[in-house]
Amino acid sequence: MSSSLIIPLMLAAMAVFMFVNIRNQKKRAAATADMQSSIVEGTRVQLHCGLFGIVADTSDSDVVHIEIAPGVVTEWNRLAIREAAPIASDEPENLDDTDFQVPDSLEGLDGASDGPDLRKAADPEPSKDESDDDKPEEK
């Protein structure tokens, strides 16, 4: 390849990279703007600082009031909202769909191959060095 083609090819590659990067950035900005404009009272949100809360008031266009604990409402800029977080359910998941195989007895189970025996690792008696630490040194 001649050296006269290298520079135009490098410039073309950089232009394609910049175009793709700017396009993706615009898509992310539009998605974030849509999410922030769709926030209504009662929505559980996560802020950029990692704080979770429930939106209490959205009457101002730039400011939202977020309840972070019962009775504790803080004021945040709408741009601080990272995402609308799903509301955690207090009900446990339905575990009937999973296939658990529970044995009727413990006869066939061998616990020795699961790891070290921790009962032997526990030392109930203090060592000689540990019991002497409380006494003052004699000279």
Automatic annotation (TrEMBL):
Region described as Disordered: spans on this chain: 85-139
Leader sequence segment: none
Entry's Gene Ontology cellular component terms: plasma membrane
Biased composition (Acidic residues): 90-99, 130-139
GO biological process: protein transport
Membrane topology listed for this record: Single-pass membrane protein
Pfam families: YajC (PF02699)
NCBIfam families to which the protein is assigned, alphabetical: yajC
Name of the protein in its database record: Preprotein translocase subunit YajC
Organism: Gordonia humi
